Protein 1
Amino acid sequence: MQISDNWIDIAYLISAVLFVLGIKGLTKPKTAVRGNLLAAAGMGVACVITLLHRDIVTYEIIIAGVIVGGVIGAILAKKVQMTAMPQLVALLNGFGGGASFAVAAAEFFRGGHPDMVGIIATGAAVLIGAVTLTGSLVAFAKLQELIDGKPMGFPGMKVVNAILLIGSVLAIAYLVANPGTPTVFWALAIAAAVLGLLLVLPIGGADMPVVIALLNSYSGLAASAAGFVMGNSALIVTGSLVGASGLILTQIMCKAMNRSLTNVLFGVMAEAGEAMDQDEVYEGKIKSTSAEEVAMVLETAQRVVIVPGFGLAMAQAQHAVRDLADTMEANGTEVEYAIHPVAGRMPGHMNVLLAEAEVPYDKLKDMDTINPTFEQTDVAIVLGANDVTNPLAREDKGSPIYGMPILNVDKARTVVVVKRSLSPGFAGLPNPLFAKDNTLMLFGDGKGAVVDITTALKEG
Amino acid sequence: MDFVSQLTLFVLAIFLGVELITKVPPTLHTPLMSGSNAISGITLVGALIAAGSDAGLLINVLGFIAVVLATINVIGGFMVTNRMLAMFKRK
């Protein structure tokens, strides 16, 4: 069966509307599941109607591809651990870029009568698509610890990147003048693929949340460019929605880490201020405590705020934390969670990890909401978080992290920090919070310590 | 569709995207990213046309690769987003 292009375009419009309604659903946890289903329905409409397109004459290859991709996708979605979500999103970003690349390539080799706009769009889709594909694979490998998370590079790397980028743009210009030159096309593809590798290799593990968000944006832009190539409204609209989403999340992450996007992209770390002597900060001021003592403090507390960091998730302690919170709540204590934007390894990651442990989402408070409440908080429990609680970011103008938004846990009446040792976080700085008069350090394994506190609290 | 109307769509959709996405709370940012992975699998429609055309082997091979990758995004993206959102739903 074949239908006219008008009907196909109207169906694409319907699916674009469903995508918009789907994202709108994601603005509230209550409507989010329905939103996701609406978006999926939009995808269904777009795919089914495309199958009726007059250019499609054979279905074998389509069916084979859908089965292979569907099985892989379903397995990934079912098996992935919530802690590994950043890796999965990195991988999916890469596949999105790869798909746009392949679609643009197919369109290029089909020939036809491409105009200047068509060729430029093809070039853009190939360039962005290939960069997204290889860049995301590097991000995936770093997050999965297949390769070292440390920044990697060689002298002159930036020059090489600049040459690759300029060369790619020149290749696109050449294709505009001579549309049918496959060698130049493949040269462009290879240059872009290498560029993707070299762009992400020098970025350190701590900056990965920014990179994933940015590659998310690229994958959308690549889809949009593919839409320009094919004159397909569904791809253009959807790709730009995703592109905007990734850009906003990139911005949020950069702000939360006090890093400019250029610094992240070029692997520039903040200037180390005058070296702070760890001993000077900590000496004689650290008060070590025990689980029983913490339980005694918690017993009389009216309000407790738990500050989770990724260390907590690495120790798989989310369920233990929820047990502790349940015990405190049974005691009549109000318990909330303070979530810093970079608490996890990607935007919103910590919220998902706690939701998995059945922590109600309305207890998860973002930084701006929770910060004014620390002064009325009896106990703040810091679990596996470090730099995001460092008062130097607020007070010491000479500090490399000065200006980074932090959780003001030091304003709570008592601060309990659960940590293995006094070792510094990603920023490599001592944390004066640990030496404050109102801070108690509970040294030990995060999960074990939380379980011990809960037990002591139940017995007490 | 001519270039100017394409560009119009693109620019307006970016503005719409910015307005929409800024309203998504931080709690849902991870599902937002996996969900947008799924939505960017819309490239599948282009992939279907390439894979199902009779324009030659190279086109079909590229189309097949694109169909596989885009389907992983669509199926994997929507399913994993659903899995996460279900955890937020229960009280």
Protein 2
Amino acid sequence: MSYAYLFKYIIIGDTGVGKSCLLLQFTDKRFQPVHDLTIGVEFGARMITIDGKQIKLQIWDTAGQESFRSITRSYYRGAAGALLVYDITRRDTFNHLTTWLEDARQHSNSNMVIMLIGNKSDLEARREVKKEEGEAFAREHGLIFMETSAKTAANVEEAFINTAKEIYQKIQDGVFDINNEANGIKIGPQHSPANQNMPSGGGGGNQGGNCC
Amino acid sequence: MSDDEAFASAEEGEEEAKGSKEKSTVVEEQSKSGQAAPAEKGGAKPKGKQQQRKKKGKAQGKATAEEKGKASQKTSREKSSVKADTSTVQAKEFQPTPAASVESQAPVSQSSELVQPSTKDSIKADSVSDKQDSKHEDVKDISTTEGLPDTKYETPRGQKQEVLTDQDADKSVESKSETQPDKDSEISAKSAGDVRQSLSKNTTGEDARLGNSGEQSIPRDADGASPNSGEEKLAEDGAKDEGSWNWGWGSSILNAATNSLETFSSQVGEGLTTIIDSVESSLGVPSPEDVAKADSPTELDTVPGEEDTVTAQPHEKEASEEALAAKRAAETQKGEEDKEAEQTATPAAQEEEDAAKAEGSWLSGWGMSSISNMGKSLVNKSQNLMNTGFEKAENLAAGGLDILETIGKKTYTTLTEHDPGLRRAREFLHLRDEKPSLSSMLREAQEQADVQAKRDEESEEALKVNFTALFEDNQGLAHLEALEMLSNRSERKVQSLLSAMEEDMLENIRPQLVEIKDTFQQAFEKEEAGEESEHDFSKLVTENLSELHLGTAPDKLNKVQENVRQWIADFYSHEDHSEISDAKEVQQRAIQSLADVTSKAVEQFHKAGELVLMQKDEEKSYTHRAQSLAKLSSVLVTEVDILASKFSQCLNKIGEEKKTTEEVNPMVTSVYLEASNASGYIQDAFQLLLPVLQHAAIQSALALSL
């Protein structure tokens, strides 16, 4: 429930590469072979522990469809981490990475940690993009790289947690200003005494006001 | 002047030493295997060195009072080093470790000095013995037999110089030429090497100086000889005339100054001698003469040139030994020699000796000498005394600091050795009564644990009934945030599109935008007038959503609402409500339900906004969509109100049944409060859609115009 930090992630990439499946695997530890088309953005959240600290990952799973691009772009802002996903069985999804990366870099803060993910690693037989190519792309653009399988859950945890570790390290290094929510990092509410004194009420009203 | 001299001699100490060695060897014609190397060295450039020395002497001769200060600084430095030597010697017995650490360099220099002098000593001793009386030989013997070599070395040095200066003063008095005394003093002060030189050249001069055993006539001889010997020097020293003038007629003033200085230095000296006395006694050297000697090098080391030491040795020893012996035996028995010796030794060694031992002895010595002699010697003395005074003061200061440092270090090491980390010391320094007992510590820990557990429990409980937390958990907050981002982006787009829009186009679209805006504003008013009558939530929601023509199904929203209603229905259907749940559970359930519904409502609005922007469906006007959304928000707010009142009824029922109205009342309040919160979120979400709808309307208008 309570957490020290909240990191905002975004998952981006072509439609059908398995973004929502990755999220579902990470948050619910299950795989859904047929997934509804994501409209705009969906959300998932999970607690992880890094360096003994509870960190809540709030993941914004964006729609991959081209028609949503203009909308999803508006969600990039304020993300601390991004999972840029392609499908190893579809080369075109790999070829579009540059566009996605440009988009992400343009609409997010420069310190955002980007993890490149080659998904569907379980479908080795249909592989079109070699792992080396993914590695080379990541190296070239300064990304972290992993091949995952949302179906088998291979590397899914690692992908999310390693990104969080990188962000956490950046916080430790003072790169991220945790007091600036535009960085996609919030400090958890667990230490605020208001929670104990207000089982309900007051705070909520304030929250409502903030949203205007 | 003596300062200058001291400086000069200090600088040239080494060179002179070599030179003197060379000369002495030449004079003595003694070839020693051990001295072969230095002799050669000296032999290679004896004249050059001499010239160098002269030049230096000249330079110093030019020096006036200002330079003196400079020189004194340097001399003081030298002295300090000398002092360091002696102090280390003392410290060796006293506090070996700290002394060594503080003055690590001192021992080295000391040792080097020790080594060097020894050879010279022998050389000089030989030369002295050759040239001089058996008396001197005795002195030499004494010096060699002495237990503390380094102190002895230094002692002679200073005293020798003094002797020389005294002599020179005498000479100058006799000659009455103002230039001469300076020269002489310079010569003498410069180095014993010069003296040596002169000695080797002019046996008379040598005799005069070395053999100034007592007769006052000898100084005159020396005076006569000195011009010869100092011929070279005469030319150089012209510059010092002025200084000499001052010395000449200012002697009376200086006398007074000397007296005061003497008292000062004697006092200081006393202090030092007492210190040294104790040290020496601890070292097992009881004789006060040694003390005096040990002391004198420190103060009188104005001429550290090692030659001086050599040449001075016989004199000094003779003087001091004899004087002491004489004093001890009987003061009346003093011969002229003794007196002279005393006189020569007076400046520093005697002062201290005498101060420490018998004042009368040196006073009597004073009385014996001629007034003029005394005046001149006083001048010299005053200089020496000034040096001595400075030196002593500095020694004292430096010594004091050293001691403080030593004490500090010792204290620290002692503490740290036995108490690593100074833990005990800290404990000791801290208040002891603060130390808690085990039982109190345990009690404290228990209390803390209880408080922590209670707090955790409370926070968990609090989170269960914290609408905001639940709203966040249901991703309602995320949707609201996303909707806000979308809204902001649309707002910017609207501004930019309108500003870039042509006038007629703007006129066409303006009514529609105003209409949408009015719809949103009226929705507020309607809601305010809305009553809490029962409604068919799912029907209304589905109806309004389909009116949007966005293809979104209100599945989630309807399902959540259904569940909530079901729970409430279940609650009412039971006769004994308390069996199902207690008030707290009902409250949690109520707030959870409100959060769920609100989250889904916000999500619905968010999705609607996204889809409005996405779909270019022109069947329904944006004004109509805005009205549908307004109705939807109204339905949602109404539903929230109904749910709140129903939950409140449940709570009240439990309160009535269990007679815990007081306990239930705040819960009812909280449920109503959260319901208003939920309504707030829903209305906020709805209002965020205004720019989105306007944006969509402009987009479609632009699309149509193309």
Protein 3
Amino acid sequence: MATTNQSNPLMQSMLSPRGLTWIIAIIAISVFTWFRFGSIMDTFEIGILIGATIGLIGAGFLWQSIQTLFAFVLMMALIGIASYAKHGDVYSANETAFFLKFLFSSQSAFMWMNVLFVLSMLTYFFALWKNSEFSGRVATSLTWSAVAFGLAGMGVRWRESYLINPDYGHIPVSNLYEVFILFVIITAVLYLYYEQKIRNRSLGGFAMAVISAAVGFILWYTFGREASVIQPLVPALKSYWMKIHVPANFVGYGTFALAAMVAVPYLWRNKIEQSGNSTSPWLTRLPTLEVMEDVMYKAIAFGFAFFTIATILGAMWAAEAWGGYWSWDPKETWALIVWLNYAAWLHFRMSKGWGGARMAWWALGGLLVTTFAFLGVNMFLSGLHSYGTL
Amino acid sequence: MDKKLGLKHHPLLTFFGSMNLAITLLVMLAVASVIGTVLKQNEAYASYVIKFGPFWFEVFRTLELYDVYSAIWFLSVLAFLLLSISACVWRNGAHFIRDMFSYQEHTHPSQLKKMKLSAHWETNSGVDAIVYEAQNAIKANGFRIKAEQKAEGQLLAAKKGSMHRLGYFFTHIAIIIICLGALLDSNIKFKVQAWLGHVAPETRSIALTDVDPRANIGVDNFSFRGSVNIPEGKSADVVFLTFKEGYLVQKLPFQVKVVDFRVEHYDTGMPKSFESDIILSAPELKEPIKTTISVNKPLIYKDYAIYQSSFGDGGSQLTLKAWPLVSTTPNPSELQGEVNRSIPVNTPVGDYKIELDDYKPNNVITLAEPDANGRKVKNLGPSIQFKVRDSQGQAVEYENYLAAIERGGILYQASKFRHSRAEDFDFLMIPLDDQKSTKRFMNFLALVNDRNILDKVLDSSINQEKDPTKHEQLVTQKRFMQQLINLFRARGFDGIHRYIQQAMPTDKQDKAFDQYLEILTVALQGVYLHTLEAEGLRSEKETTEAQRRFFADSVEAINALSAYGPPMFFEVTSIEPRESSGLQITKSPGKDVVYFGSLLLVIGIFLLFYVRPQRIWLLARPTPEGYSELILAGKDGKDDKQLKTTFDDIKQALLLATPPLQETAHGNNQSV
């Protein structure tokens, strides 16, 4: 007789005490949100809240670490928000209140995130070099902590925008500075997911390298350009669409960046293998080519799906805000180019069965296209999307 | 071979359906897109000529690079891509559909044994019992089963995830649908008419009734995207489409009236939201539609969508004070005007036309450093933009700020000006007196304008000098000073500099310039003190720090006047704002088609990536020895990794239910 049923593990984890707590907690939080903020939400935003609730519950079961992460982020963000409340709900409290000044005001939290990401890159590389399991575990913890600080910082920043001026209030995904924070968080979370899946930490340094580069940009942007100032929204951005279009887009950017960074160790290992040096210590530490190729493929496929949705949502938003679903605006056009690039990549892999070094090189090159769409368009081209000009 | 299959292998179809062609077209599309983003699209032809020079301008124009996305070659690439994808779907379609429905029950036992996921053993159980157990185990894993009695034995062929194949159809058909929708909206019929010369742009700004008939587009136009500015209280039944070097007038089957327009600002002066109360009336409507539209909240009427896209001035009423800048009497005259109209002004120094272009209620500038409140922006307040055109048609462009502008604790009336669009703006900063008015400066200026002012200012003290030679010296000095003042008033510091360059040897120029400036300053100070005296402000010889500062600023302003253009300065004394609402009206029948295609695309992508086609076979047959042999095999669309757990699960169940005879279990995967 068939003894086990395939759908059982998921059901079991949902009906376990932890699973039920998770479901009830998330539902309770969103019901609270609805009671507290329902009056300023429109129908679509309530829809987004319901969708987010279901999505978060689901994500928590597909990947349990989300549950732990969420608990930490919630706690940190609440400490930050409560500290503001304790100091009269004025934005300038971030200069005086201890918890805000040193830990959980959005600026402090983002700084912690930045530092932790750079440290985690160094630690991952150290772990790879020394083949140290312990250092690897430390690096993973550092990455998780950075993600927690980043997400908590975003939550607190959302609140801060209302504290500065209720008119300014908006979700912090509205300009280049804010989406860069979103980008590093999403890329790191995606990396952590694959790290758990493949049970190998040796790719961490590479993934954290692209994140650290982005952190470098964030630091320059913060201190060189004062970009961290919370600005009110231009009328075109005042829409529920922003809450879904932007995050969906950055899941795409994040996975494409991750795939490119996995391509680096892939090509490295490939070179070692081709040189015939089978005694190289790296061969035992890095995942096999097959595993890395699979991560690249899965990341790109996942990102492609999200990027498609994001672009379509963007077109629907454009139809409402700009009067046309497609205007050949530079950002739109580059989104299309990115899409075409990965569509071609997927075709070559799925239909032509291409693999190996050339696909890895292509995934790596894709990072250039993605970076241009993400950053270059804002730097060199002007158009309707000029919310994040440098 | 089957003759019907022949078509599928037709060389043309093979060519169009090949992935190499599709990828080549995709690359071309990407390259064209890049060009379109790097080269700014749909600008005025004149600016392209300036940018590229006449030769390359012509080359790029021939290649239609100024409007890449509606260029014939670009649309041809799209059309070929459509053909290519269609051919691809056609070529693979039948095979994929067959595969989707097929259980592949004809797979030979020897093939089953060769699969990567395969196991076979002999057992005591009967064939029926094996089939029964297998059916349960396979079904429990969500497979659909087809049972068949074959010559080789009893076969179960099972499949799961056939929707994967559907993903292929969805994605590719979706792209075709999206392109068709876009093609609908790109309005081929209109393009053909334009190509045949039935449509031509109007380039002049003239009354609607005078527009070239070929620029008038009827209501039957299939799709368009145009804009129109409607002042409050007015209505419109046309929109303007930008087309080549001019515009077209698109007739609407309804009329839109803007009843009221409102704009809200943040405390920084940036617009926070803007909205219009509109009334849409059409012959077929019993009741006109009254509604409010705002950014992100358009009104949809039939195929048409009406968007709030911008706002501007709809004819604000202005009262201006015109200060004469070359007169010796500082008496301003009053003018009435309306934005978007011009005011004729006749002066002793010539006839002018003041073209009032815009009234801007807010001027938000970005600061290099955030201010005390952590803000990076500052609102300079309202301004008017206008041109002053002389009788020869030469114009100078101005922007005057209504509110005083503070710099280093001093208030100024600021005016920006430039003589051509290619230049940057220069500033005229008129210092304000204690009453925060330009009065004192104008008084001072009127005196400076007097070509014999020093006679009035200095004669009393010169006449006190009794020594005739000294008196003569003073008179000569005075004359020289007066010449300097006159030169400065006419040409500014630059005029003095040039005079010295012409009149003096090179090595003495710098020194002379310093000396001249000193003398000029002394002379102007005399005039300035005279101004203060006339105001009754001067107490003996003392001047305050503020008065000295005012003097320096005034001299700077007079210097700027030499390039200011027509001899008038306009101050706004009252304003009655009247806004106009910028609407964008589109007709895009292809939109829903595109959305439907998009939905199909998303579903298709998820089916392709996240549904894995899996197959399981079980063959049970009696052996000559009186036992039963069973072959279990499986494969998925890719590397069999996904299926392995399921396969092992089923195998374990069967191993328990129909245990193998000693030593007869074999499998390609070593997990028995």
